[in-house]
């Protein structure tokens, strides 16, 4: 892919129509795009795919895959974001192109670490599984031929000859079903999973796979290809990292969160310092509750904690004067005297409010940023407890917060599956006694806002899972915060400047 500058190419499609590249709505994404695209299109495609994958993640946890509700919700999201949603549509060239390009952009962004690769692979697999299941028999056949996975159908005569063996070796099929079902001869390398779990008949180096199991073969093949491709892409990262236009965008995407940035806060000055203890119990997400507790207990936080918690407090509405008073009061109860506080800490607090240095108004951290960057070390309290705490410690913490045992089990299951934000949503539901959180959690400040709205009776908990990966944008009260959720170069600049700000917080 080549990229053109934003100023010259705003929203222009730069390449001609390349319809012949996409004979099917479904793709294995074997060839990277070679056309020139504008940076604007690059960003918007990537953000839309990220939204789609977040919905895939949410649905995968909330619904049984391949059920009607799962399929309907996923199709709605595909339609809304203008990705291919119907195998038969002939005129979805633009959607297929967007699907292709956006997959490769996120592949670049999400190959950068083991965690990112695992998350991306899981969501892309689920998306592929759904799309494959929507193909008609003939389209499936065409697709398999296209990706060189066409398998030889077992003739009726051979099937009759082998029917007892097929029946005995294929769990879940009665003899009559064996007679009805098509079987395919598949090389053992392609049928490893079925072979390993003893779910197929093997003869002369071929697995005899019933039609209903072909999706397992295709998915396995896709998984192998994609996971290899991610490893290869990771190896080519140094050349991408040298592109100064691309790298900030890719970093932003991999830490991305598709919602308001909470840097503009309507509640400024509406929260008093005396309320913070009570709010930390009722309305803070676990990461901030943990930081608040640590601050109260030890009268100090190391710089990672001060950054994460300080910006969160700013986001919920603390004014600069309140922040200075809050931190000072707490720190001088510990080992820091007033003079040292003024010299060592007050400047950095003013800086984070845009009153010093470059006067940038800093943005509170999103969940993705907290989860993916700067993991806590010994003596640190920042990070996301669902991601960074030992499961046993997390369990004890949840017990001490009176979360019921069944809820703790659900949370730990989600954590085990690496669904950290969904674990946090479950924590919200349990602490607020609602059946369904009704929004997709992406930001600690969003957690706080939604909690306050719920506790003040400002909203009824929704019973339906929102299909959007970014449903809080639909709330009128938040729309004004950020009408364009797409990370822009200004977000990227803010990230760079945030790094600079961190330098001011180096004193532990
Ligand atoms: Fe905090 Fe987000 Fe982790 Fe929840 S998921 S604890 S809000 S970082």
TrEMBL record:
Residues 278-448 form the DNA primase large subunit C-terminal domain. Its cofactor is [4Fe-4S] cluster. [4Fe-4S] cluster binds at residues 287, 367, 384, 424. InterPro entries: DNA_primase_C, DNA_primase_lsu_euk, DNA_primase_lsu_euk/arc. One of its GO terms (molecular function) is metal ion binding. Residues 496-508 have a biased composition (Acidic residues). Transmembrane segments: none annotated. Belongs to the eukaryotic-type primase large subunit family. This is DNA primase large subunit. It comes from Piprites chloris (Wing-barred manakin).
């Amino acid at each position: 892919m080549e990229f053109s500058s934003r100023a010259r190419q705003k929203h222009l499609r730069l390449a001609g129509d390349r319809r012949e590249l996409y004979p099917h709505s479904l793709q294995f994404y074997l060839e990277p795009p070679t056309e020139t695209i504008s940076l604007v299109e690059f960003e918007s495609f990537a953000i839309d795919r990220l939204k789609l994958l977040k919905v895939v993640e949410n649905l995968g946890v909330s619904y049984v895959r391949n059920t009607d509700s799962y399929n309907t919700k996923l199709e709605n999201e595909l339609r809304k974001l203008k990705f291919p949603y119907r195998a038969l549509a002939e005129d979805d060239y633009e959607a297929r192109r967007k699907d292709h390009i956006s997959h490769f952009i996120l592949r670049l962004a999400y190959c950068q670490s083991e965690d990112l690769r695992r998350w991306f692979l899981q969501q892309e697999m689920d998306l592929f599984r759904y799309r494959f299941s929507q193909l008609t028999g003939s389209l499936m056949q065409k697709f398999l031929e296209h990706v060189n996975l066409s398998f030889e159908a077992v003739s009726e005569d051979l099937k009759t000859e082998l029917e007892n063996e097929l029946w005995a070796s294929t769990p879940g099929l009665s003899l009559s079903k064996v007679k009805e079902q098509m079987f395919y001869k598949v090389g053992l390398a392609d049928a490893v999973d079925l072979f390993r779990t003893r779910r197929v008949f093997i003869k002369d180096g071929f697995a005899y796979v019933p039609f209903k199991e072909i999706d397992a073969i295709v998915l396995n093949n896709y998984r192998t290809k994609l996971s290899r491709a991610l490893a290869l892409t990771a190896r080519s990262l140094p050349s991408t990292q040298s592109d100064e236009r691309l790298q900030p965008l890719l970093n932003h995407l991999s830490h991305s969160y598709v919602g308001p940035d909470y840097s503009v806060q309507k509640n400024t000055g509406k929260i008093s310092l005396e309320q913070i203890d009570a709010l930390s119990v009722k309305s803070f997400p676990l990461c901030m509750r943990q930081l608040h507790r640590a601050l109260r207990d030890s009268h100090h936080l190391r710089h990672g904690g001060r950054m994460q918690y300080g910006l969160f407090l700013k986001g919920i509405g603390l004014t600069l004067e309140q922040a200075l008073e809050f931190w000072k009061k707490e720190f001088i109860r510990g080992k820091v005297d007033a003079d040292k506080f003024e010299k060592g800490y007050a400047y950095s607090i003013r800086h984070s409010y845009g009153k010093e240095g470059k006067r940038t108004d800093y943005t509170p951290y999103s969940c993705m940023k907290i989860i993916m960057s700067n993991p806590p070390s010994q003596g640190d309290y920042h990070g996301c407890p669902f991601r960074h705490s030992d499961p046993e410690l997390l369990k004890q913490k949840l017990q001490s917060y009176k979360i019921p045992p069944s809820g703790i089990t659900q949370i730990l299951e989600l954590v085990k599956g690496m669904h950290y934000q969904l674990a946090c949503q479950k924590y919200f539901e349990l602490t607020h006694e609602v059946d369904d959180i009704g929004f997709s959690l992406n930001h600690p400040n969003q957690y706080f806002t939604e909690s306050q709205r719920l506790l003040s009776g400002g909203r009824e908990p929704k019973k339906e899972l929102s299909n959007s990966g970014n449903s809080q944008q639909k709330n009128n009260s938040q729309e004004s915060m950020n009408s364009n959720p797409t990370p822009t170069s200004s977000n990227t600049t803010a990230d760079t400047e945030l790094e600079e700000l961190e330098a001011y917080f180096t004193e532990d």
